Amino acid sequence: MAFAGAAEHGVNHYFGFAETQWKLFEKEHPRRVKPLLYVYRVLLTGIHLMETGDIEANVLKLTEVHPLPCVSELVARKLAGPEQSTLDDSDFEFHRGQFERLRNELQSAFESSRLPETPSAKLALNDLLLRLRKL
Fold first, then answer.
1. Residue 1 within any structural domain of the chain
2. Mind listing the pLDDT tens digit for each residue in 24-39?
């Protein structure tokens, strides 16, 4: 994938972290809900960032904007305790499909993103740092 500008750094981070979390989830036996929720949170956060320029990391808030019905069930299972925090092997293919769909959605969100080529607050941040150092 070829990326350019400020969006490149964001999208590369989200793709890389999601891939790492997915590989960890794939290797587990039994597969736990928590790593899968990380995968969903990371991909949804990246999509949201590419679309809005805002970072939102609360997976339940993200699913209000980007519906993914299985997430609320997974959160409930995680909160219910260890005996509910693993998945049946029969659920794996469904989640693999969701992972691939969200990766494609992140790619599309990146390609249509209006994030600036360079960070817009760079000069203001530099000015703030200079003023703080003078204190």
1. no
2. 999 999 999 999 999 9
**128 has a pLDDT exceeding 90:** no
Integer distance in angstroms from the first to the last C-alpha of the chain?
45
What size, in residues, is the chain?
135
Please give the residue range of the domain that contains residue 60.
Answer: 6-133
Beta strands in 30-89 (DSSP E): none
Q: What is the mean pLDDT of residues 74-89?
A: 90
| Residue 40 phi, psi dihedral angles, 5° rounding | -65, -40
For residue 29, being part of any structural domain is answered with yes
52 in any annotated domain: yes
- Please identify which residue in the block is written with the tokens 């979390």: 21
